[in-house]
Specification:
The chain is an alpha/beta fold and 506 residues long. The chain has 21 helices and 16 strands. It has a 7-stranded mixed beta sheet, sandwiched between helices. Strand 3 and strand 4 form a beta hairpin. The longest helix is centred in the first third of the chain and has 18 residues. The two termini are 48 Å apart.
Length: 506
């Protein structure tokens, strides 16, 4: 919300206003301007100073009221005031646990018609007690728009140059444009602080700074979040198969990143769901989307989401989605989403998972930010129909076991990662012998074979054991893949997906 909207709240005869924000200086500047414009006294309370009159119709000289550091005493003073005014309570949330303070505030609010006094509670956390909920309006400080962000960046650039005579900030257009996009969702003070860190002593703003900015931004926004910032994002070049998925994503990259002005008439891609066999690369594909698009990857941990305290789960989720919106453009990876939502209304968790589902669906339908959702799932029966229907996400892809060609490529990738030379191995034979293996099972076969080779080495201290073809073939023979152990379930999954999804591979 803007300053004009805050003024409208005050003018609307709202007795109690809650503002949850760490931008105390910015909010106080807005309230000061409003008080002066409306010719209202502005009192500010803090535990350290007590009540201070910062804006007065007669004088602009601040005046502190003695013996008002105690919150009860300050509220008695506000209650006894015979003039309309605005009373700002800074960091008052710890005192809202006291029934006396709650009653004092409620009485001032109920007295508003006789004497209009507005109580504003401002702090980084404002938990309104039930007694005051219906009397309170919430105000959220609007984040800087693109024009404001660019103005702040240029101000900080000029300030840096003024402090370093004879030097100029160096940046290319691509890095500068990427910087402006990454700063979206941050407050003005956070933007200034991060820019000063990035500029440092050399005055450079390059692509390395953009990567560092993403990490700083997530740390700033999601310190207590159930989101994790994934730094190891795979490139599609390192992901075998998934040709249809790669083509689908390539066609939408320009629209999502708003980098192709000829595609402005197209809707921004919402996201996709990956269904399939365990170990076949769904998680790697999610990482690869972010890596190939060069945007941050956020992973929503449903295990950390659920909280034993009633109401905390939904709040955790709302805060996580708020962080994702602020990090845009980004990819939000909802891993094993079926563990976080209920497929049936008779859930044993008191309906909590259904409320989580409702929150997710509402956010999906209403969000305006460029957050691309990648939901992965192994259990189609646990997925509620509201989630898998068309419109929630753009497409549902089925990730099957890798074919012969893809298995060769997977062996090649994992051998190279472990400092082996793929050309020294009979890859077609390995691919043939590993029929029915998932990508994860192939990787584990390579790892186990390396341990076997190390155990047979005359020099076990060697960091790179001499891997032989026979080591790999032996491990393949010893492995019972999931396609055999759970053959019936995989057959059912394939049958279900046949006419309901798009194959991720050709």
């Amino acid at each position: 919300m803007s300053q004009s909207e805050l003024e409208d709240l005050i003018a609307s005869r709202i007795a109690l206003i809650a503002i949850q924000s760490s931008e105390e200086v910015a909010v106080m500047a807005m309230l000061t301007q409003i008080a002066r414009a409306r010719k209202l006294p502005l009192w500010v309370w803090s535990a350290s100073t007590g009540l201070t009159l910062t804006v007065d119709a007669l004088s602009r000289t601040p005046r502190t009221e003695n013996n008002t550091q105690d919150p009860a005493q300050a509220l008695r003073f506000a209650s006894a005031s015979v003039l309309p005014g605005i009373f700002v309570l800074l960091d008052f949330h710890p005192y809202l646990a006291n029934p006396l303070h709650v009653r004092q505030i409620k009485q001032i609010a109920l007295d508003y018609e006789r004497l209009p006094r507005t109580i504003v509670m401002l702090g980084h956390a404002v938990d309104i007690p039930p007694e005051l909920e219906k009397l309170t309006a919430s105000f959220t400080l609007a984040m800087p728009n693109s024009e404001t962000i660019e103005r702040v960046v240029r101000e900080e650039v000029l300030a840096w140059q003024a402090g370093h005579p004879g030097k100029e900030v160096k940046s290319d257009k691509a890095s500068f444009d990427a910087l402006l996009k990454q700063l979206a969702g941050l407050s003005e003070s956070d933007i200034r602080r991060i820019l000063r860190e990035l500029l440092g002593a050399n005055g450079l703003l390059n692509q390395e700074d953009i990567a560092a900015l993403s990490k700083r931004k997530h740390a700033l926004l999601g310190q207590d979040s159930v989101l994790s910032f994934e730094t190891n994002t795979e490139r599609f070049a390192e992901v075998a198969g998934l040709r249809n998925l790669k083509t689908w994503l390539a066609r939408r990259k320009g629209v999502f990143l708003a980098s192709d002005p000829t595609l402005e008439s197209l809707d921004t891609p919402k996201g996709l769901m990956l269904l399939g066999v365990q170990g076949c690369g769904k998680s790697m594909a999610a990482k690869a989307v972010a890596g190939s698009w060069n945007v941050p990857l956020l992973r929503l941990d449903f295990g950390a989401l659920y909280n034993k305290f009633l109401g905390e789960t939904e709040r955790n989720l709302r805060e996580a989605l708020k962080v994702a919106d602020a990090m845009a453009p980004c990819v939000l990876w909802m891993d094993e989403i079926e563990k976080g939502v209920a497929s049936h209304g008779n859930s044993s968790d008191g309906g909590e998972s259904r409320r989580v589902l409702g929150t997710i669906l509402t956010w999906m339908a209403e969000r305006k930010s460029r957050v691309f959702v990648v939901a992965t799932s192994n259990d189609i029966e646990a997925l509620p129909p509201e989630l898998v229907r068309k419109g929630r996400l753009d497409e549902i892809f089925f990730v099957d076991l890798p074919n012969l060609q893809d298995r060769q490529e997977i062996f090649k990738i994992h051998l190279r990662r472990r400092k082996q030379f793929p050309e020294e191995f009979d890859l077609p034979l390995l691919a043939e012998k590993s029929a029915g293996f998932s990508g994860a099972e192939i990787e584990q076969a390579v790892i186990a074979a390396l341990y076997e080779a190390r155990s047979e080495s005359v020099k076990p201290e060697d960091s790179t054991p001499k891997l032989q073809m026979q080591h790999l073939l032996s491990e393949i023979a010893r492995t019972k893949p999931l396609s055999i152990v759970m053959a019936e379930k995989i057959a059912y999954l394939r049958a279900w997906a046949a006419d309901r999804t798009v194959r991720a591979d050709e």
